[in-house]
Amino acid sequence: MKLILRYFLACCILFMSCSTDAENQEDPDPNASLIGTWYFIAYIDDEGQQDPNGCDNNDFIRFNEDDTFDFAYHYIEGDECVDTGDQTGQWSYARDGVLELVYNEEETREVGYVIEENILTLTIDEGLGEYQEKYEKEE
């Protein structure tokens, strides 16, 4: 009986001493990967995927650690590429997979998001149907 008790005690001590450093570290912030600058790579709606047309290659959204974001969109007017200029807002996590974006301290929008590897997909519904914008993170 003493042999069994010693064996059990030795196994318990061995098990407790084998924890890894990863188990002892705090979990990294699962949302940290959102922070940074993301460049537009695709627009997707019911009609399919549209890749950047050259003018909107410079579209970006940047999520900052201070819960602000800035972005710029470009569009073609005649033969010219028009820059909307940098715009800013506040962002926060509304719930799992959903961001709350506040533009100009007035307009609030909930936007679905998924990050897979280096690609951010935003799912947006402005009341006329859902669409997605895809962005690639700046390295």
Keywords, separated by commas or semicolons:
139 residues, 2 helices, disordered N terminus, eight-stranded antiparallel barrel, two-stranded antiparallel sheet
Topology:
Layout: H1 2-17, H2 21-24, E1 36-45, E2 48-50, E3 60-63, E4 68-72, E5 74-77, E6 80-83, E7 87-95, E8 98-103, E9 107-116, E10 119-125, E11 130-137
Antiparallel strand pairs: 1-2, 1-3, 1-11, 3-4, 4-7, 5-6, 7-8, 8-9, 9-10, 10-11
Provide the structure class.
mainly beta
Q: Please, what is the average pLDDT?
A: 80
Q: What about the largest sheet?
A: 8 strands, antiparallel, barrel
- Taken in chain order, the helices and strands follow as HHEEEEEEEEEEE
Q: How widely separated are the two ends? A: 62 Å
Assign an overall shape: globular
Oligomerization status of the protein chains: single chain
Folded structure, characterized:
- The protein contains two helices and eleven strands; from the N terminus they run ααβββββββββββ.
- The protein is mainly beta and 139 residues long.
- Helices cover 14% and strands 50% of the residues.
- It is globular and about 40 Å long.
- It has an eight-stranded antiparallel barrel.
Concise summary:
With 139 residues, this protein is mainly beta. The protein contains two helices and eleven strands.
